UniProtKB/TrEMBL annotation:
Matches recorded under PANTHER family: CYCLIC DI-GMP PHOSPHODIESTERASE PDED-RELATED, CYCLIC DI-GMP PHOSPHODIESTERASE PDEF
One of the Pfam families matching this protein, by short name: EAL
GO molecular function, one term: cyclic-guanylate-specific phosphodiesterase activity
Domain called EAL: residue spans: 319-572
SMART domains attached to this UniProt entry: EAL, GAF
PROSITE patterns: EAL
The name this protein goes by in its record: EAL domain-containing protein
Amino acid sequence: MQTLIEALQRTADLVVNQFYEELARLPKSRRILEMLSEQELAHLKGRQVQNLLALAQPALNSQEHAAMAMRIGRIHAIVGLDKEELVRSRGILQELVYKQIGHRVSGQALSLYARRLTSDTAWQLKAYQAVEDSQQEVLQRITRIVWVAGSYTHFIDQVIGALSTHDELVACAIGRPDAAGIFHFEAGAGGSAQDGNVLLAALGGQGHDISVRADHPCGQGAVGRAWRSGKAERVVNYQTDPLVARWREMAEREGLRSAVALPLAAPGQPPIAVLMLYSAWPGGFVGPDQVAFVELLQTLLGCAVTRLQIQEGMHGAAVPVSVRQHRAALVRTGALEMHYQPLLNLATGRCGKVEALARLRDGERLLTPDEFLFSLASDDLLELFARGLDQALADRRQWLAAGHDLDISINLPPAALNDIRYFEATREALQTHACPSARLTLEVLETEAFSLIEGQRAILAKFRALGVLLAQDDLGSGHSGLARLRELPFDWIKIDREIAQLDGDTALDALRVVYQVTRLGHSLGKLVLAEGVDSADLLAALAILGVDGVQGYVIARPMPAAQLPGWIAGADVHDAHDASGAQAGESVLARLARFVVWEERVQLIAAAPGAARDLLKAAGFVALTPLAEALVGLGDMLPAGAARDELQSDLLRALLDGGRESDAWRAALDRLMRAIVATAQATLPPAPVPSHTH
Ligand code: C2E
Ligand code: CA
Ligand code: CA
């Protein structure tokens, strides 16, 4: 072996130089070599020489050898060296070694060396497998996070947590730009100190500004480019890429040699954040496996963004860490002020329940949830819930003492279904405030794209067993609300205000949706409430559609606890609403609502074979018998008269003969709509001023 070592010492430089010349002829290996600076290439060759010598050491045991080869294999895997080319290049290396020293050393030494070279290759391939396994594992973890993360902050913390264990990365960080386009990292892990905070300080440190604006000198880095292009953008080598020269030194200090910037965006939408992955070697994230990994990761994160955007209405502005910490501290220091918005029960015409909504007192300002909710981490959310519930139940006791017996509805963040502490906080608060559990409703957001996983069901079941009511919040804003409606034990459904939003041409369809959802809810034994009702016209229309409750500015805006008794007293004096029968001045919306109900009834009759149909036909459509009139008459939708009778007859004939798809039906429907609008405009008194708007 000694002669072998001596021979190698003399020739290793030559062998290695020849080896790299050969490598440069292999297409994929050449790509990798071209990414290196001269210095880096020299360094690499030096390591190769050391490696050749190490393999000749008689004392090298197989454990040490395995560890060494796996270390090198891992680097090869990370820089995306093709497996086949790895194997081929090892063959080339072996040939070169034979050519240089084969005639000088014993056959025995040579064959031992050859065996070591071969097992070296095998170990390296094993390291490839380990990197692939790590990729798989990280993707699985991220898949889980995507479907359960409760807030943007929670989400980025979890994603960074999952990625920080991944073999290929030396560091990772996520952030967003502020209104001026300056990018701020909000979470990160890894770097020289293996400490996320140190890394974030380095990335965002003095003189390392990152901008997402094309016209900004700091806007040409991977982050800025990714933000603008919506695609993954790479820094192949911080030491050679001129676009990132301004961050070169910092990257070197932190041990960041290459990177990829992944814009996080819902499909077809602009990004809301950028995730940076850093490699300890030049050329990370460009090999075919790496490209596939990065693409998958980006797709998964896009799903999460879709969910979070729905959930939080994110604006894409970064919240600097200091602000996040400040807001989290506010939650814990008595700055929480619950406000209450009355829910109107349409059956009784009274407000017997209020939704508790969080506000944070920050000096002069009162922050609303859209300003602070997304910047809270998961433990802050728990704190917010526990304190908010405590306050609400305490306020409830005060109102009770003043003679107002009110139920409380409160928002349960989606994370609560993964964290039993929410259940425990609820049980405790009910006990502390001697509140019967049926007087409390928990509003659960519709966010999961799929049905709940087992553990989440179990937690819901515990809440059920406790006896609190459950409401599905924001129905219609998420994905598969219908499947969940059937499966989950909700008492109330709250229809999101987006659905009931009425603009011009879509008003009729919006009312149809509300009506059908209401019927569906009722047939499943649930009560239905419409949210965001901000006009008296809509309120009247919803009452006609059979909705059980409404909430919105037309009834009252959220208010501090102390104002509520006064408001209730005022509300009792006035009549909350009057939905019985049409009045002369009924609005377009109310008339359209009547039409929606009419349409449904007529269709049911039309679908029934025999009697009802014959009845209608016999009536000749024009002069309806009293029974037929009651069943299918347009009633108060239009003023009585020949025009109404004719329209009614056209509608019925079209529907019974041609069905809903027929042109005749569409034409008759169109005429009816125009008649309704014209009538309402002619008879409508000045817009009624809702009596309870504060
Ligand atoms: P949400 O549960 O859907 O609450 C109703 C939101 O709609 C409230 O906004 C309320 O002020 C607003 N709103 C009510 N009527 C109308 C209307 O007629 N028109 C319009 N445009 N808006 C109306 P707020 O208080 O800003 O709360 C926003 C969201 O923040 C809530 O939506 C809820 O998801 C969340 N949130 C509020 N408080 C808490 C809390 O204590 N904990 C948790 N986890 N989330 C909360
Ligand atoms: Ca709610
Ligand atoms: Ca809601």
